Batch of 2 targets.
Target 1
Amino acid sequence: MSSWRWLLVLEGIPALVCGLLTYFLLPSRPEEARFLTADEKQRIRAELAREEKGKLKEHQYSAMQTLASGRVWCLVSIYFGMLIGLYTLNSWAPQLVKSLSTRYSNSVVGLLVMIPNLVGLAGMVLVSRHSDRTLKRRYHVAVLALAGGSAVISLRATHSAFFSVALLSLLAVGVYGFLGPFWALPSEFLTGFSAAAGLALINSVGCLAGFVGPYMVGFLSQRTGGLYGSMPFTGVFLFASAILVLLLPKAARLPGA
């Protein structure tokens, strides 16, 4: 097989291995977690039951009400906008870096593109931890969306490899780091079957950005004569996501919280 086909095989193997390990190692509920003591399991079960009761007391959604909920569709729009940024990074970062200098080989471009992804990985962990400590999910998503939007628009102003990679790293922190706090937002008001329907809707419609984002960036690049001219398109979606997440109602304070 040619080298690019082997690349797909090598990229797919970790996902397959992790999928199998997840089934055997990731507990589905507290009582299955071997790393928890009996007392810790009981406390977590009680906390989850209290949160569930609080959400049901505030409002109980049916599956159909969830699919028609403006709040859920707002989350769909936020996710769609953020994924425009994510797919722009994944699809076009190599060509952006390659355009900086004709002297860059494909190997050099690959190494430079690794940097934003590694920074994004670290950012994802740190942001998620801070979000869990403060419980201010909306503000975390908004700040990351604004940071990512500012970074992608600022790419037009520099053709330096250092600053371009730095801005791509900031974009990576935004579009990877938002995932943790964002996916905690639907669970603040959805429960049971409504949560399943809401999460499925957000994920399925939002992932259409995987087609719209790369296609529109490519289309605008042809019209403007380069990739940098299409970056404002991505920035607008990230800024729109920041505005929408701030318009979401605050989570209700649960009894005894």
Target 2
Amino acid sequence: MSRRPSPRRLPVAPALDAHRVELAACRRCDLAPEVLPIVSEARTPRVILVGQAPGKTEIECRRPFAGRAGRTLFQWLARAGLDEQNARESIYIAAITRCYPGPSPSGRGDRVPSPGERERCAGWLATELRIIRPALLIPVGRLAIDRFFGAVPLDRIIGMPQQVEHEGGRSTAVALPHPSGASSWVHQPGHRDLLDRALDHLARAMAELGITSSTRSAA
């Protein structure tokens, strides 16, 4: 008996192009008209980085991690051997939610996306995981880490790569703390050592994938 052929899977770049068009048109949440979804630039990635949500600068620049937190994040990636330009081309930069949620009521940092906003946005990340099937996953910050690891203390996750299951299969996950200046975690005793350890693991993982763009920079 002949076997039925498996359905053809659209190549990653065309699939992501079509996905980006749909994502850019998303209006599932009741946000201001000028608050539009932020879309990644990478077309043939093997790595997905998942943040929390865009900030005000991202809305103005139309690029993920374009503000102060982004500068810190790309400094971390440079320490792992990947400069910003190559990071944007090699890594699909996603988030738990894709629109700026507005400022925090406390006046410090941005508002944490509501559970309803996270639920309405969840399908976009699930689709990206299925399309890309990343070899390496980089959750950044509390919400992204919770998405893949559950509610585990950050000091039990940062610097300790693990294999995680998700909609696209199985990936090595190297978590990072949130790079926002509003986050104090990295400044607490011992936590910079955990960050350094995470960047060491990230450097090795990216080198194995052949996407390291430079020699590692100093801290």
